[in-house]
Amino acid sequence: MMTDTFRLRATAAFVREHDAAALLPFLLPELDGLETRALAERCRFSHAALVVFPPDPETLRAELAASGLLSDQAPRPSVVVRDRLAERHRRGADTLDVTILRPPVHGPDGVHRTVEVFVLPVPPGSDLAELARHERANEDEAHVAFAVDDPDPLVLHGLRAILLRRGAVPDGGGYNPHEDATVFYFGTPQAKVRYQRLELYAPGDHRDVLDVHLGPHADQPAERLLRLLTGAWTTQALAAAAELGVPDAMDTRADTDVADLARATGTHPDGLARLLRYLAMLGVVAWGRDGFRLTELGALLRADEPHSMRPLALLYAGPFYRSFAQLAHAVRTGRDAFEHTFGEHHFAHFARHPELADLFDRSMAASSRMFEPVPAHPVFDSARRVVDIAGGNGALLGRILTAHPHLTGVLLERPHVLAGARRSLAVAGCAERCAYVAGDFADVPPGADVYVLARILHDWDDDRCREILRHCADAMPAHATLLIVERVLPTDGAASLATAWDLHMMCNVGGRERTLAHYARLLDDAGLSLVGHRSLPLDATLLHARRTARPDVTG
Ligand SMILES: C[S@@+](CC[C@H](N)C(=O)[O-])C[C@H]1O[C@@H](n2cnc3c(N)ncnc32)[C@H](O)[C@@H]1O
């Protein structure tokens, strides 16, 4: 359990190191440059907040002093956080004596900021000990706050609209008469920093805007849970649209009439209208005056879109949907649910069903935009030969060979995958510079300069990964490089696609996503060293490893 001093120090360091323009895109990765600028012009990053639970005032003073946080201001009563704690822990608000301190901290540019410290005394033997334990572990009240200096209602409505459009979710708020200030809380579920709540802090009484923010039922956990529970319907609605060719028959620049769309897709007009209404809620299509328009998001489901995500939609709503229904089996037994559902491992199952193998290969290509920056890695400049181990349909090798005409490539894959790889490398114009090896991880060809393992290690448990990495290390000359593409699990609780894919790997493959330290250990065990890493699109990371130099024992 983290001590309050540690939590105070970490919060103060965060406030010191960040500013609004840099922080906002981490909280809401979908913000575009214009929106970030509009927000940063009207909102200052003012503080990060936490709740502490000192046994007595002396301990609190000592903890604040040890964290470099000193304030001679008198504490003010908290209303909003007190009420939230009371509701979460089913206690009367008047039994919680929560006060607010705001010790100053200087930001990177010397500007005045604060750490907002909510203080709830928990004397020894108090019945609040369990509440304190829960709150320290979950940090439900931790948030970062942006102060709005000129908060007229129009500005507040405009700021809310941008935040909501980019994935923020209303998460309560309130008016504190002791401070004459209104706060608006938002959840930021996509955040790439440890804070998944954002506060707009507006001096003055803005309860009219707050009423809109809170909505009639917005603070009901039951409503939030209902929204979460319908996730399966989202997967199926997206896949149904893709299967029926709805995005393919729509336009991103003009509205399409529902009756026309029903004719074009061979669907029932009422059924289609209802599906479209749901898709509009997801942002996949948008309501227009004359029907519905396809959005940029929805266009990714078109069959002819470069990097089309249609195959992924069909896979996730098809075989992987059936196996996800058995997730509890995977959690209970530690064994993958795909094998439990289909009677064999997914690689073997797909190998026996060519239409599924094809769907799988095309769905891997759907997210191959994560490879875009890989060919720019400097290791390719001095290399001559590259081996892509289990390179799938050759999407990555094709990019590397296209960017570096001096290179030759080898693609190692299972025999049934090679035909597709040959075709796509021929389309990429790299056929003459590429050789193919039909085989297993044990057949990694020796003597190349760069070896690539993209989205392979997460398919396997640690023992099999060590084995695969040893095959690589054995094949690698002393100067060679191994590049690994994976989604790396964050260690600070930040939201990441890796966390979702870790569940997918457990359920469907029997593998796992890993932290950077975990990869470093596996490499080390195989005689390799992690020497660098850089981030890639779609929450992926490129790890760079070399053979570990062995001490010269020839003496
Ligand atoms: C998740 S895909 C990744 C493909 C490619 N590297 C990419 O990122 O697009 C995993 C690949 O491992 C291959 N594979 C599975 N078992 C293998 C084995 N024993 N030896 C070689 N390749 C294998 C599969 O055929 C599949 O193409």
Automatic annotation (TrEMBL):
Transmembrane segments: none annotated. The keyword Amino-acid biosynthesis does not apply. Residues 324-528 form the O-methyltransferase C-terminal domain. Pfam families: Dimerisation (PF08100), Methyltransf_2 (PF00891). Keywords: Methyltransferase, S-adenosyl-L-methionine, Transferase. This is Methyltransferase. GO terms for biological process: methylation. GO terms for molecular function: O-methyltransferase activity; protein dimerization activity. It comes from the Bacteria. Residues 227-301 form the O-methyltransferase dimerisation domain.
